[in-house]
What we know:
Elements: H1 2-22, E1 29-36, E2 39-46, E3 53-62, E4 65-76, E5 82-87, E6 95-102, E7 106-109, E8 114-115, H2 157-170, H3 175-183, H4 189-219
Antiparallel strand pairs: 1-2, 2-5, 3-4, 3-6, 6-7, 6-8
Amino acid sequence: MRALGVTAASAALALFAAGSALACDIKDFSAAAICDGTKGVITVTDKDPAGTPATVSVYLENNGADERLVGTQEVKGSREGVTITFEEQWKPGAEYRVHVKAGDQVDEDIKPNLVTPSTPCATDSTPTPTPTPTPTPTPSESTPGESQTPTPSPSSPEQSASAPVETASNAPSPAGESHLAETGAGSNTGMIAGIAAALVAVGGAAVFLGFRRRGAKDNG
């Protein structure tokens, strides 16, 4: 009987120890402030091997008091750990209180409070492309819709040579030439003078013959 009692006591102690090992505890929970790319987040990990359902609430602290509730989520832990994430664009050195409520086993905060790193999450460093300004046309450049004054081209050699000829043809003629043109005299003056001389000679010969014929009649 005594041996049976010792065995029963040992079994009860073992069951108690096993139950205590599987019980949910605040030490099964941990919190961290990390960066997810360019976004800040707060993570809470539950490593309760018993998998007791728990409710996790995160609060932003300000001088030891809750400033605002970041969020509340449900979690069921495991031996390997289950992590939940709260989106929060935290600032460096900010303080957060993380409270855990798991049935009637846990109802307390993770100690100490979570303090964020001193370095903020990297922002998007991709530069915004600057639009290329449209160049303003200078006065010498051609602008659509504006007329340009044509540049006169230099006179050709033929035009330059013909200019004096046109001037000479338009100059007034000497007075003598103008008078001859008006009276009809010109290149025919010599011919007219020759005809007149011939007529004078013919007239003289006729008069001479007439005198000879009259003298002959008078002598006969």
